[in-house]
Amino acid sequence: MEQEVIRISNIKCKPNDGLDLIEKKIRKALNLGKEDIKYEILKRSIDSRHKPEIIYLYSVIVLSVKGKSFKDILKRTRDKNVTLSKKIIYQLDTSTKGREISEEERPVIIGFGPAGIFAALNLSRMGLRPIVYERGLEISKRQEKVNGFWSGEKLDLNCNVQFGEGGAGTFSDGKLNSSIHESTGRISYVLNTFVEHGANPEILYVNKPHIGTDVLAKVIVSIREEIKANGGEIHFASKLEAINLKANPSGEKEIDSLEIKDLTTGKIFTKTARKVILAIGHSARDTFEMLDKLGIMMTAKPFAVGVRVEHKQELINRNAYGAALDNPNYKLPTADYKVTYKTHASGEERGVYSFCMCPGGYVVNASSEEGELAVNGMSYSSRAGENANSAIIVTVTPKDFGENVLDGMKFQRKLEAAAYREGEGKIPVQTFGDFDKGVKSTSLGKVSPNTKGDYKLSNLREVLPEFITSSLTEGIHGFDKFIKGYDNEETLLLGVESRTSSPVKILRNDDYYSINIKGLLPCGEGAGYAGGITSAAVDGMKACEAIAKGFIN
Ligand code: FAD
């Protein structure tokens, strides 16, 4: 749905200005007096190019002005920042509500990460009573498991940082920005759903919204309750073990039923299903193996590997805000960064770049397989941790690890096994100074590792191949051009960052169904169609729309 609005860009405020100033500026730009106006903030970005001056730049949309038409208002303004625009509102077709739906027709969703959650939420809002099977546990029990693992307890192969309610992002920074282009309002729908379920409305307009692991966990529980209230079912500790196929009259393979293992009893039961959304994330390696054996069409895809880098957050804040940091009136957000650098040290050009940066966060042991170790980043909504961390990674392609479907996954496993060995089960940590020299770290500088899970001083050159370590070294030195102090000797590297995106793509048609199995909808990050919480959620919405087509008259 489209709504005509007036857009005003480039509204400049200071960080300590109240939101009431925005309304004053809107009235001025539109030559308005005291008329009732309805407006929304569309975007807020921070301009720190003229430090110590920091400017908050707002874009707003005016939805209505009582007693005045937009045409008349626009006639009376010459402000080039004022334009007629359109607000796109995503509309879920709920005409299916109240329709009879047999047990066999109920859509099944495997995985309750962002993709599975948004597919389930919308199917439930449409009255289609989805059934979700998730191998991990519900959030409160999952938090106990993960905290136990970080304190030294045994890894649970089905309930960990990658698996369980909320998916891979539950123990994350909860960044909600996305680089996907979406013209139908689905991104706003996702963010609005987060707000409806308890997130701070600021996420609707700040440039890079984030909610932190603490708020995200509460939001997910609240969405789960809505799905259940709408007639959906969510089964935790329930793992998809196998898919039974049959040939339809045209000789095509289609889903007959699913074999689901109840992980609390160890018993496997068969669930007849016609439409199955496969939203299993990028770490379900055993499930990828099962799908490959079954002949579901997949290809190996590029991803990226490297390390997590930690600095004092103060260094990153200082770089972003300069002396403005010392202004007691400014409450500036904990600063983030994004850096990229072209390197040649490996003998060919390779981009090295930051990814999933977590201001004021922790580096977490995000492993999901025995004898292997992977790291990632997490922060709370306050982003108050002492260190900034970010993945610093290099893209790897089938040329680097092999052309077979599961070769990328095997490459990840190899790196993670090396990281586990090097850290003796703990997160291997090395100062950049020692990494540069190629020696094992035996002491730390001013930066202390801020980790969830134990760490051990190590040599990450024992973990990563030379073409990656040489690219990382050149890249990290290169980043110093943008952030002074980035390549300090005491900067920390933690490894291994290997779960940046899926190592496979499960091929699907434009209608969102698998290209060779009828009824199967590969979806989200694991299938290779999303990268991050918001884009995975959007992909879940699209899978829901594809299923709903069969129900809408
Ligand atoms: P997932 O979230 O991975 O969910 C898949 C679910 O399927 C899992 O819960 C899994 O248990 C379940 N599953 C797998 N196999 C089976 C099976 N056989 N049977 C039943 N269930 C199964 N992204 C951001 O945008 N912002 C961030 O700040 C951010 N930080 C991150 C921090 C960490 C520590 C991690 C690990 C990831 C982070 N990401 C972040 C990435 C983000 O979490 C993923 O992009 C997103 O979760 C992908 O969503 P998904 O639904 O496709 O898959």
TrEMBL record:
Q: Which domain of life is it from?
A: Bacteria
Against InterPro entries, the record matches this protein to: FAD-binding_protein (IPR028348), FAD-depend_C (IPR049516), FAD/NAD-bd_sf (IPR036188)
Domain (FAD-dependent protein C-terminal) spans 302-500
**Protein name, as recorded:** FAD-dependent protein C-terminal domain-containing protein
Recorded source organism is Lachnospira pectinoschiza
